[in-house]
Design brief:
264 residues; mainly beta; seven-stranded mixed β-sheet; 18 strands; globular
Length: 264
């Protein structure tokens, strides 16, 4: 997979970054002087203007290597939007992009820390750890940051999953922002992100966000992935999975409830 390189800091760009969405409407004028207007989604485009300054030799070489490999505009490559959430349908966990383990029950319209109802409830009725996750078609070797807000009725643990990495955090009745950031040595062309809840627990989530710019936290923006040259991957809110055997060492609190919220 050809992809736009990140800088050595893990950022995908430098400020200022400009992003423009262009759409087209088809208009048909009838002989009776009526106008029929139809959207032309196939003609819609998204344009980024990104400038770089003071690059080191490795960063410059990576950009030049990509330009040579794609022969300018001839070949498609994957571009990770540095301004957006990489997770799709972050507000609707019933969409097909979300993969929920079979014993999880999801309930929407739960009160969130901003006074709205953007959180959702996840109930794990089984004894084993269950996971809500999503995968994105993006290089696993890039640096990502998964971020969520979480709380529980009593102290308990939740797990953030970023590819094969698992990060445990203890949450309480107060909303707490949890993050998992880093880079992996992997040649895979996809990566999964998610959250896991132990058996016999109830959790409430507000869509988490994943960014390819750990240093650029821009709350409230959501869209993500574009492959130039006609192949588009919609932005995705990604949820994590545990590595095989992790569940053997994960405990749980009976009748505890967890709530997770992500800004945006």
């Amino acid at each position: 997979m050809l992809y736009f390189p990140q800088l050595s800091s893990g950022a995908a760009g430098q400020f200022p970054i400009q992003k423009k969405r262009t759409a087209r409407t088809l208009v048909n004028q009838s002989v009776q002087d009526y106008e029929i207007k139809l959207a032309d989604p196939g003609a819609a485009t998204t344009e980024w203007q990104i400038s770089f300054a003071e690059l080191n030799d490795q960063e410059l070489a990576a950009l030049e290597t990509l330009f040579a490999a794609t022969e300018g505009r001839l070949t498609s490559f994957t571009f990770v939007d540095p301004t957006d959430n990489l997770l799709a349908w972050s507000q609707e966990q019933n969409q097909a992009v979300w993969q929920a383990d079979p014993l999880l029950t999801l309930t929407a319209n739960i009160a969130d820390p901003m006074g709205g109802t953007g959180a959702f409830q996840v109930t794990n009725a089984g004894l084993a750890t269950q996971i809500l996750q999503q995968s994105i078609a993006a290089p696993a070797s890039l640096e990502y940051c998964l971020s969520v807000y979480a709380r529980s009725n009593q102290s308990m643990q939740v797990w953030l999953m970023r590819g094969p990495e698992t990060n445990a955090s203890t949450i309480s009745p107060e909303w707490t922002r949890l993050t998992s950031a880093g880079q992996q040595s992997s040649g895979n062309d996809s990566i999964s992100f998610g959250v896991a809840a132990a058996g016999l627990t109830t959790a409430f989530f507000i869509p988490p966000e994943v960014r390819s710019n750990p240093s650029l936290f821009i709350d409230g923006v959501h869209k993500a992935f574009l492959v130039l040259g006609g192949f588009t991957v919609i932005s995705t809110v990604v949820f994590w999975r545990l590595r095989q055997g992790d569940g053997d060492t994960i405990g749980h609190d009976v009748d505890s409830s967890a709530y997770v919220w992500t800004s945006g």
